[in-house]
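Suppose you are handed a protein chain with no further information: no name, no annotation, nothing but its sequence. What can you learn? This example shows the usual starting point.
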Amino acid sequence: MMRGYAETSGCRRRFLLGYFGEELPELCGACDTCRSGAAARALEEREESDRVEGDWPVGAEVRHEAWGDGSVVSDDGDRITVLFDEAGYRTLSLEAVAETGVLTRR
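A reasonable first move is to predict its three-dimensional structure. Written in structure tokens, the prediction is:
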């Protein structure tokens, strides 16, 4: 999770709040990625990706074939991080999820 935080191109405040199960509806405008414009670009890319690859918003309740029930804690455009009840945190490629269908909404 720390690596995800360090490497995110999205809003860092949204990332942290998502980790704790909260959602920030807009960019904070104060972190380094917001000030540089990277967060806005990442958000645009994520919205385009959502239209193409599926909808996995922060807080969505999901089920994985092998890891069971969980919830999405962060969305970084091309990948999501899910906290599974039994398996802990797992970062999943949205492309792989779309191809395999191993993840479903509950």
